[in-house]
Each structure stands twice: as structure tokens, then as C-alpha cells.
Description:
This protein is of the alpha/beta class and 208 residues long. It has helices at residues 15-25, 32-39, 47-54, 67-76, 78-102, 116-119, 136-146, 151-160, 164-170, 184-203; strands at 4-8, 28-31, 109-112, 128-133, 173-176. It is built from 10 helices and 5 strands. The model has no long low-confidence stretch (mean pLDDT 94).
Amino acid sequence: MSLIVGLTGGIGSGKTTVAGLFAELGAAIVDTDAIAHELTSARGAAMPAIVGAFGGAVLREDGSLDRARMRRLCFSDPAARKSLEAILHPLIRGESVARCRRADYAPYVLLVVPLLIESGAYREHVGRILLVDCDEARQIARVMARSALSEQEVREIIAAQASRAERLAAADDVLSNTGAPGELPMGVLALHRRYLELARRANDPGPA
Ligand code: ADP
């Protein structure tokens, strides 16, 4: 696999929406959030270690991780957050890298990492960083519309993430998602063409 583009952005910025548009154009998508959900589903690979560290109280009835409960625990107890991350992050990273390698059917891979800029661990795996950029007021409105989180909870999540300025400083490419959803496909298509060209150049060894 020649080109891996890291797609990032704050909660509710539109990463999943944008990734769907790239997928329609033929990019392979590896989504670390989706991998985290799989790992913490009822028979997910992370569950034995999570139950070992936190006990059965963090499980839902079906045996999957009670994510809302775990989120509250992590916000009130930094040590709990650290031990959860120590279990989950290596598993997510290993699975992401394996899936990127397997995606050789596509011209390039979009690796969706919400905390790409914060973690640093993914930077060595991506050739460039695409930021889905959006202001805080829109992030809050979108997340509240799609979930049961309160405004205060969304604000806490945003405060724990990199700032908009930090993301903008780290990005190679920026896709603004402050307008209507219908405005996204044009920008996605322009980026897709750029990535096809970069992937082609990376695969072309040039004159001997
Ligand atoms: P993320 O993956 O970054 O958290 P999503 O793509 O899930 O963000 O978008 C968050 C919510 O906002 C979703 O319900 C999505 O349908 C909606 N959304 C995304 N882009 C827009 C937009 N430009 N205008 C209005 N709603 C949007």
C-alpha cells in the first residue's frame, strides 16, 4: 500500500460523513472508531482485559462494554482512563495497520483517526493528514442532535481534544464542513483526484 491519508477532526466535525463520500469514489476506509467498537463488542478481543481491569460492572447485559458508563468513569478518574487506553490503543493500532496493509485493492487508504493529532502514534503510519474542519458551535449542535449527550458532556469531550488551531497547524489538507452537507462532494472529489495522483507518483519509480 503506497499512500495512507490520515483523516481527522473533532467530534461531530463530519469525519464519518466525509469518509463515506471517499468510499463512494473508491478509497479504502479504515476507521479506528469502528475497530474500537468491534474490540469492545460482546465477544470483542479487548473484553477479557477490560473485565480483568474494571470488573463486570462496566458491561451491558449483552456482554459488550457500557460505553456511556466507561466514558463517565474515564472523565472522573484519570487512572481508569490510562488503564483503558493501555488495553485498547495497542489493539486498535495493530488492527488498523493490518487493515491498511490488506487494503491493496484500492488506490489509497483513508485511515480515520479522531485523535490523530493528539496521539502522535499514528503519524508515522500516514503519508499526510486531512482535517475535516468545523467550528465548535456546529460540533456541539451536531453531536447533540445525533446522541443523548448533554451540551456539557460534548463540551468536556471537545475540551479534552486538540484545539481547532492545533489541528489546522498539523494538517496537510483541510476540508471545511461548515456549510450544508451538499457542499462536501465537490471538495472530496478534488482531494480524491489529488490523492490518486500522489498514489500514482508513489508507485511510479521514475526513470532508472
Ligand atoms: P464525526 O464522525 O466527525 O463525529 P459525523 O460525520 O458523524 O462526524 O457527523 C456528525 C453529525 O453531523 C452526523 O449526524 C452527520 O449526519 C451530521 N453532519 C455532518 N456534516 C454535516 C453538515 N455539513 N451539516 C449538517 N449536519 C452534518
